[in-house]
């Protein structure tokens, strides 16, 4: 299609439209107009023939009218002065005897979207609201919302709002739903339409008369209604019962959400509802439409957070079929991981084992990671499967298996022996950075149990010059030094070579510094090296803490049937924030606390500005010494006093965070290794009155958010608040520095 | 709710756009193209794509992406269902829904979209009401329109919009009163290497075509209603009556509609009507492999299995296949490695088989993944779940309607692992 040279097309069409012969012939005239529309839909700029099109709107041919209106709605904002000419015809059509023409004209007029049109459309809309044809009323009701938007969010027209509220009693179901939609938009600034008892009950009674879209939307609006008594609540639930069995998944989900929200004080009702929608939800999971499947699966995962065993007996429904798209397969594998129990573990593992050799490397790797996460509970079976996979000698499989092993020995030390026996030989099939790092780490930490560990590392040392990833070199340095401590005779020579290379020849500064650091450490003496490098080799408690406790249904009920389960909250929050910023002008700088308190502090000491947040009510004790055991005991005995989520985009540097926290006297007790996903850290701090703050940071890169959970040994809201603001400031500052 | 709609073909051209609120620039689709590129295959494009200011929800059907742009939080199922409805409507209007057809009928497409959504909210989506607003183009009507200059816009407003029963128009009149019901069941199954069933379930629907005068009130009862585990109904079905008596009682919409859909799953053992015997072997460091499959009937209650096709994606290492079928035709595409065999009817006396050799990449180790066999088939006059309609009665009108019920079983996602 001619994107270039559209001027010629416009010229030609213009000529045709002006031609009196064509104008006389209805068919030819309409064909020309159709061509204009066709070009318009292809993205060509057709605004040049606006004048001629306006003239064409004066016709009895309803199709031609439709086409011209369509055209005008698209280009009116560009040619507001010319569009005013068309208003006259439109106004006349608004009182046509044919209701279709009236509706059409009114809809087009409301969609013109140009300044100054409001004064012309107000009267036709008001007439339309009282029209005897429901078709026109539907259009007029939505027209009210469009008119309000044209006004640019100015004051709300009270009379119009009242009229719309009274139209909620209209006998046409679509008019009713349109009223809701329209009021919602007009009253946006005041928090949307108010659903009081009469309206709620009226809507409930009309529900069965609505189409599926109307039902889904009304269910959404009813969320705002708070029943007065328990009796009323259960009456409503009874009325809505049949919608849990609706043919449309959207209505089923809407009804489920309403049940969950209304029954938030009755956990057994909530559980009951979730049991009842199991059928429809599973049906949606195997629906013909891939997209529906995907969204349903996301919701299944959400339900599993609260009711882990909920779908266990249906685990076979989540087996992947060959022809499904990736995004569904990946969701299904995640669901399978969460469904595993003593009865089905064998079958699920066999199924996952099958996926590990899938043609698609991504899917195969996801399946292997899934087996790894099941391994935390069913260690022996999984390790055996993973070991067998190594036998395939496929590069993409081996690297992921080794990474899984690394994470596994850290969480479940009982499998170390089996892993160590499986490792020899894998080094031939690993090429990528992550896999190499994992292998080297394993060889370093558990090298004394792997007979050929020094020789494998020696190969890496031999080839260190051609190694492209600095992270691998760092890992190699640490691993070799660790192995040197347990098997000095075999390692001494190559450690020397490696250190020499790193210090003398390496170009990457970080690697060189690490090399120098170890060299100097060795100079201090072997005992010092041992003290620093021989940290614990596993941390089963981390797995215990990582095991997500069952979350109450209420924690996610409000997110049910929204995009949140599909993409996570923070993302949508950032999007809405952008909109807010667009609308209300420049946003306040995030660090307003700094900015506001800045001038109050004499400028000579910059350090003190940093301490401003805690210099008020809260004074954190420096150099607090807590042992990990004590921390763990206290952590497990306390309840979460505060939880919140902060956005965190992009990469992450644990060291920087740790240092920054140190500055404000918050100590890091333990944290995951850099690059772990999700990344976790446990922090502690104490204020001058002896109140202890224990904190968990959980960074989930897939949602780009940082979740903070704080526990306190004495309940004091004031100090808790100030502590949290300190934390927020630190995290906020780092986030900013980084970006 | 739905801000704009873009139609994009698989090569990444936007060939139609429609905006219901302000005009959203085409550039928003760049995020979609990025995702499309990343996904390598069209099927793998994720259905929800976030962008800094919008969300893009898409469905992929008939090799076209229907991309909806939304700006506020919405129930995702709602939008996805709606997009599917749009596709269904196009298919209903034009017979097929493809890029050339949409381009040819762009004007009707626009008219339909305009009626389906106003200000981003669904308006008229029932196909029988839409068809009264905008008549679908037929060859005859196009010819007539060209000659007489008449239009394909209805002159009358759909009367159904004023009826007390929202899904049925008033004043329906037919000279032949008839009601047909089709019970269609699809088997989704995964069969393992040894022939035992891993999962199997039946997805069934009852589609109806009801052309009855006036306001008939129908009841439909089943011989074995307990079979139906999980049922969802057309809004016309009286739910309370089903709960208490297991009888479907309803005032039907006029014309074609889906009365109910149901699932029969593992709890009631699902009969598998076909079996596949296979012997596929790759040998290490040999450039030849053996391939042999046979298809036969299993539990078919004496009915013939028709329309059988077998497709299988062979491993990358397979260069070519030389096969001979005992019946039907087969093709192997050496580029996509897709084997397909159009079998036709299965004759239980002489089972169809496909035998031969595969030439493999020389020197490569044997492929570690085994091909999966996908099966399509049809069985007329049989509902594999054993569901049977007992009787159909009509109240509220005096005449005697003609009634018909048809059963059919099809393969859904039916695959055999080897």
UniProtKB/TrEMBL annotation, chain A:
Molecular function via GO: clathrin binding
Topology relative to the membrane: Peripheral membrane protein
Query: Would I find Transport among this entry's keywords?
Result: yes
Gene Ontology BP annotations: intracellular protein transport; protein targeting; vesicle-mediated transport
> Which top-level group of life is the source organism from?
Eukaryota
Q: How does it assemble?
A: Adaptor protein complex 4 (AP-4) is a heterotetramer composed of two large adaptins (epsilon-type subunit AP4E1 and beta-type subunit AP4B1), a medium adaptin (mu-type subunit AP4M1) and a small adaptin (sigma-type AP4S1). Interacts with TEPSIN; this interaction requires the presence of a functional AP-4 complex. Interacts with GRIA2; probably indirect it mediates the somatodendritic localization of GRIA2 in neurons.
Any idea what job this protein has?
Component of the adaptor protein complex 4 (AP-4). Adaptor protein complexes are vesicle coat components involved both in vesicle formation and cargo selection. They control the vesicular transport of proteins in different trafficking pathways. AP-4 forms a non clathrin-associated coat on vesicles departing the trans-Golgi network (TGN) and may be involved in the targeting of proteins from the trans-Golgi network (TGN) to the endosomal-lysosomal system.
In Swiss-Prot or TrEMBL terms, this protein is called AP complex subunit beta
Q: Which organism is it from?
A: Sapajus apella (Brown-capped capuchin)
Q: Which gene encodes it?
A: AP4B1
Automatic annotation (TrEMBL), chain B:
* Domain MHD as annotated: residue spans: 176-417
Q: Name one GO cellular component term.
A: clathrin adaptor complex
Record membrane topology: Peripheral membrane protein
Source organism, top-level taxon: Eukaryota
User: One Pfam family, short name please?
Assistant: Clat_adaptor_s
Gene3D superfamilies cross-referenced by the UniProt entry: 3.30.450.60, Mu homology domain, subdomain B
Mind listing the UniProt keywords for this protein, alphabetically? Cytoplasmic vesicle, Golgi apparatus, Membrane, Protein transport, Transport
Name the InterPro entries for this protein: Adaptor_comp_med_subunit (IPR050431), AP2_Mu_C_sf (IPR036168), AP_mu_sigma_su (IPR022775), Clathrin_mu (IPR001392), Clathrin_mu_CS (IPR018240), Longin-like_dom_sf (IPR011012), MHD (IPR028565)
Location relative to the cell: Golgi apparatus; Cytoplasmic vesicle membrane
- Tell me a GO biological process for this protein: synaptic vesicle endocytosis
Q: Would I find Membrane among this entry's keywords?
A: yes
Q: What does this protein do?
A: Part of the AP-3 complex, an adaptor-related complex which is not clathrin-associated. The complex is associated with the Golgi region as well as more peripheral structures. It facilitates the budding of vesicles from the Golgi membrane and may be directly involved in trafficking to lysosomes. In concert with the BLOC-1 complex, AP-3 is required to target cargos into vesicles assembled at cell bodies for delivery into neurites and nerve terminals.
Query: What family classification does the UniProt entry report for this protein?
Result: Belongs to the adaptor complexes medium subunit family.
Protein known as: AP-3 complex subunit mu-2
Organism this protein belongs to: Cebus imitator (Panamanian white-faced capuchin)
Q: Which gene name belongs to this protein?
A: AP3M2
């Amino acid at each position: 299609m001619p994107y270039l040279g559209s001027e010629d097309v416009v010229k030609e069409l213009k000529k045709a439209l002006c031609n009196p012969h064509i104008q006389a012939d209805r068919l030819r005239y309409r064909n020309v107009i159709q061509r204009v529309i066709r070009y318009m839909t292809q993205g060509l700029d057709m605004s040049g023939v606006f004048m001629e099109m306006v003239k064409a709107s004066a016709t009895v041919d309803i199709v031609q009218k439709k086409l011209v209106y369509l055209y005008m709605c698209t280009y009116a904002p560009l040619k507001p002065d010319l569009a005013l000419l068309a208003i006259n015809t439109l106004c006349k059509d608004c009182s046509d005897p044919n209701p279709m023409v009236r509706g059409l004209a009114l809809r087009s007029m409301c969609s013109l979207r140009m300044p100054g049109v409001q004064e012309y459309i107000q009267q036709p809309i008001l007439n339309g609201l009282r029209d005897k044809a429901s078709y026109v009323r539907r259009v007029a009701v939505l027209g009210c919302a469009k008119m309000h938007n044209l006004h640019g969010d100015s004051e709300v027209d009270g009379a119009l709002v009242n009229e719309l509220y009274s139209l909620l009693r209209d006998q046409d179901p679509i008019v009713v739903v349109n009223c809701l939609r329209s009021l919602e938009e007009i009253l946006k600034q005041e928090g949307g339409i108010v659903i009081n008892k009469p309206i709620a009950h009226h809507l409930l009674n009309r529900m069965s008369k609505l189409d599926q879209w109307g039902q889904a939307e009304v269910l959404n609006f009813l969320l705002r209604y708070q029943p007065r008594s328990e009796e009323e609540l259960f009456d409503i639930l009874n009325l809505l019962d049949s919608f849990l069995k609706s043919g449309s998944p959207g209505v089923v989900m809407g009804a489920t959400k309403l049940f969950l929200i209304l029954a938030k004080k009755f956990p057994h009702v909530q559980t009951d509802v979730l049991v009842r929608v199991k059928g429809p939800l599973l049906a949606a999971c195997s629906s013909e439409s891939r997209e529906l499947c995907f969204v349903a699966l996301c919701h299944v995962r959400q339900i599993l957070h609260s009711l882990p065993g909920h779908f266990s007996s249906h685990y076979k429904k989540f087996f992947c079929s060959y022809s499904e798209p990736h995004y569904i397969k990946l969701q299904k594998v995640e669901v399978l991981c969460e469904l595993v129990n003593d009865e089905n573990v064998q079958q699920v593992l066999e199924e996952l084992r099958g996926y590990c050799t899938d043609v698609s490397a991504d899917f195969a790797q996801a399946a292997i990671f899934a087996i790894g996460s099941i391994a935390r509970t069913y260690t022996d079976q999984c390790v055996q499967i993973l070991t067998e996979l190594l036998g395939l000698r496929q590069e993409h499989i081996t690297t992921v298996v080794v990474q899984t092993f690394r994470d596994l020995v850290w969480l479940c030390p009982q499998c170390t022996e089996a892993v160590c026996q499986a490792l020899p030989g894998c080094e031939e099939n690993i090429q990528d950075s992550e896999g190499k790092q994992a292998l080297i780490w394993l060889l370093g930490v558990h090298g004394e149990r792997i007979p050929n560990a020094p020789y494998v590392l020696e190969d890496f040392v031999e080839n260190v010059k051609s190694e492209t990833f600095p992270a691998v070199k760092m890992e190699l340095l640490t691993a070799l030094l660790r192995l040197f401590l347990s098997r000095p005779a075999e390692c001494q020579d190559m450690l020397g070579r490696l250190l020499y290379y790193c210090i003398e020849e390496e170009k990457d500064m970080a690697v060189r510094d690490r090399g120098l650091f170890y060299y100097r450490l060795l100079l201090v003496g072997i005992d010092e090296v041992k003290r620093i490098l021989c940290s614990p080799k596993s941390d089963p408690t981390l797995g215990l803490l990582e095991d997500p406790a069952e979350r109450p249904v209420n924690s996610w009920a409000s997110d049910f049937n929204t995009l949140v389960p599909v993409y996570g909250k923070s993302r949508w929050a950032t999007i809405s924030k952008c909109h807010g910023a667009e609308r209300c002008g420049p946003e306040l700088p995030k660090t307003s606390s700094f900015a506001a308190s800045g001038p109050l502090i004499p400028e000579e000491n910059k350090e003190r500005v940093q301490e401003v947040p805690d210099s008020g009510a809260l004074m954190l004790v420096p150099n607090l010494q807590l042992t990990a055991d004590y921390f763990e005991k206290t952590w497990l005995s306390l309840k979460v006093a505060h939880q919140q989520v902060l956005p965190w985009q992009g990469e992450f540097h644990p060291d920087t965070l740790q240092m920054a926290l140190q500055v404000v006297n918050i100590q890091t007790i333990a944290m995951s290794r850099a690059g772990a996903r999700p990344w976790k850290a446990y922090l502690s701090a104490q204020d001058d009155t002896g109140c202890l703050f224990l904190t968990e940071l959980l960074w989930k890169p897939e949602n780009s958010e940082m979740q903070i959970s704080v526990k306190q040994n004495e309940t004091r809201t004031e100090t808790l608040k100030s502590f949290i603001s300190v934390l927020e400031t630190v995290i906020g500052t780092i986030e900013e520095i980084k970006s | 709710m739905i801000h704009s709609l873009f139609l994009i073909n698989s090569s990444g051209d936007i060939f139609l756009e429609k905006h219901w609120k302000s005009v959203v620039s085409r550039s928003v689709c760049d995020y979609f193209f990025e995702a499309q590129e990343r996904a390598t295959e069209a099927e793998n494009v994720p259905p929800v794509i976030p962008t800094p200011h919008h969300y893009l929800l898409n469905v992929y059907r008939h090799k076209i992406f229907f991309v909806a742009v939304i700006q506020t939080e919405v129930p995702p199922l709602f939008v996805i269902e709606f997009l599917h409805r749009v596709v269904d409507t196009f298919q209903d209007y034009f017979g097929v829904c493809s890029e050339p057809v949409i381009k040819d009928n762009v004007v009707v497409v626009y008219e339909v979209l305009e009626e389906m959504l106003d200000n981003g909210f669904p308006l008229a989506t029932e196909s029988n009401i839409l068809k009264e607003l905008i008549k679908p183009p037929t060859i005859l009507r196009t010819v007539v329109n060209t000659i007489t200059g008449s239009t394909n816009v209805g002159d009358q407003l759909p009367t159904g919009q004023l009826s007390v029963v929202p899904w049925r128009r008033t004043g329906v009149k037919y000279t032949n009163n008839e009601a047909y019901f089709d019970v269609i069941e699809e088997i989704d199954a995964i069969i393992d290497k040894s022939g035992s069933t891993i999962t199997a379930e039946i997805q069934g629907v009852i589609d109806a075509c009801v052309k009855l005068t006036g306001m008939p009130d129908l009841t439909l009862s089943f011989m074995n209603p307990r079979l139906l585990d999980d049922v969802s109904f057309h809004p016309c079905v009286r739910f309370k009556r089903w709960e208490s008596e297991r009888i479907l009682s309803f005032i039907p919409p006029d014309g074609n509609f889906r009365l109910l859909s149901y699932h029969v799953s593992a709890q009631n053992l699902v009969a598998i009507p076909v079996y596949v015997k296979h012997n596929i072997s790759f040998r290490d460091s040999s450039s030849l492999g053996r391939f042999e499959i046979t298809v036969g009937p299993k539990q078919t209650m004496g009915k013939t299995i028709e329309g059988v096709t077998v497709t299988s994606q062979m491993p990358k290492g397979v260069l070519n296949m030389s096969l001979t079928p005992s019946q039907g035709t087969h093709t192997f595409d050496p580029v996509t490695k897709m084997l397909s065999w159009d079998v036709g009817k299965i004759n239980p006396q002489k089972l169809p088989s496909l035998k031969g050799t595969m030439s493999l990449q020389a020197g490569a180790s044997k492929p570690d993944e085994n091909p999966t066999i996908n099966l399509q088939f049809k069985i007329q006059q049989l509902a594999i779940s054993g569901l049977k309609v007992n009787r159909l009665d009509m109240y509220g009108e005096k005449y005697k309607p003609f009634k018909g019920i048809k059963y059919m079983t099809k393969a859904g996602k039916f695959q055999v692992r080897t």
